[in-house]
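Minutes, project check-in
Item: structure for the 570-residue chain
Input as provided by the requester:
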Amino acid sequence: MDLEKVIDVAKGHKKADLVIKCAKVINVFSEEIYETDVAIVEDKIVGLGKDYEGEKEIDIGGKYLSPAFIDGHVHLESAMLLPSEFAKIVVPSGTTTVIADPHEIANVMGLQGISFMRESTKNLPLDVYMMLPSCVPATNLETSGVDLNSYDLALLIDAPWVLGVAEMMNFPGIVEKDKNALSKVKLGLEKDKKIDGHSPHLTGKDLCAYVSAGVCSDHECTTPDEALEKMRLGMSIMVREGTAAKDLDSLVPLMKKYNTRKCMFVTDDRHPQDLYGHIAHMVKKAVKNGVDPIKAIQMASINTAEYFKLSNLGAIAPGYKADFLVLDDLQDFNPRLVFKNGQLVAKDGKMTVDLKDLTPPPIRGSVNIKYLYKENLQIPAKSEKIKVINVIENQLITTKSIEKAKSENGFIVSDIDNDILKIAVIERHLASGNIGLGFVRGFGLKSGAIASTVAHDSHNMIIVGTNDEDMYLAAVELVKSQGGKVVVENGKVLAKLELPIAGLMSNKPAEKVISQLKTLNEAVSQIHCKISDPFMSMAFLSLAVIPELKITDKGLIDVCSFEQTSLYEN
């Protein structure tokens, strides 16, 4: 950039490239709104004041000018879309920067997965910074595609698009001084980069130890008291509103009473149909619940930028990137215009730039299972009593119960009348042949089976079904498509969403993916599933860090004791 030109334009001696006229600027520094003009040179704001002239001038007639929004923590893979399709939805909503944690694809493909995400996010009207996944794998009780240690992460930590180390879910490891966990924290600290946290219900002196180790934030707060304790210790609070976990409403009292400059908005995990509105809807919801509009905008912009040391983002001021929104009012927060790097990229909810020519880099197939026979799904009847996973709808935690086993021909089978269904987790990275088998209650299926290769955190293939034949067919279908979600009944495929990119993402347009998801939901209703989002619930049944009973490719896991346990109860 020509600094002499910047100075001349800022002083009013030369015309700017672009001037936004008659703008009610939302100033996140002084926490005020006032009318002025904004001068831009190339991608930078250079001046605020009256009487600037530009080669191009846009008079917004007294509408509000807000900094563009930033998502402080998101797993792009959870949208099941290519990053370009993700951008097509969130940019018109006013989000022009995201901080992504490629944790999901890293569990499948390691550094290659992170590289894929980086290459796929280039040349978008959306800045995508990344945090390096800290917990790949999440536990030693499952088989993931790779094991990323601090030496692996050191290869990327110096990249300018890497802002630090992502959510340190292994908070017990930090508190207990696990060398592997601490080595990843030290890597970030040595480079003066951020260490994000993940510490639900951690409190007291253990929390102090966690923060003292260098962890700076948390997105797992569900109550004002929990958030306040962490804020008092200097942590930044990431207020989350995802597809499954929604914490904004419960944290409104914190945002209305305490220092919101330590708060930021994040989406974490959202399915594609929930991307519309994105951070703007969080701002709207906060304001509707009584949060001051300027403070809500700070949480969506400057707070996040300053936390991640992005010194040129998050405000409308000289030296900052020309990323801003034109808003009609401070109630709906639907951007009339979205500017990225000084260029108009969206208008009235639609992109104004073409993303059709963006081609993702090639990536290998990732659904590699040992040749599967239907007999591999059989469970010998070694006991009359079995341990059963009990699903609680809209919650990640499960409970354990001891139930009478239904047996046929020497094997335990699904007990449809009592809603005790077979569940299988098939290792799909190394073709090891590992299959974890158990039973789950809560889905209510009367026939058929459902299956997916989206199963946190290692994303092995997971299947819930009423009979082995349909469960086997579901597995075969996912191998054929190299990943996805499927519903089968009586030997027929009722609905299927192919996710060939790491078994997590589609290569189809967002509209197509959303349509297929709708068809999947209709199909699960057809087989009488009583859970509103069974694929979401199923995806977390293999997450062996959330109590009480889970299942991985290595078998049934007692999360409370953090060890494998027998299916049979003697």
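Outcome recorded: The chain has 15 helices and 31 strands.
No further action items on this chain.
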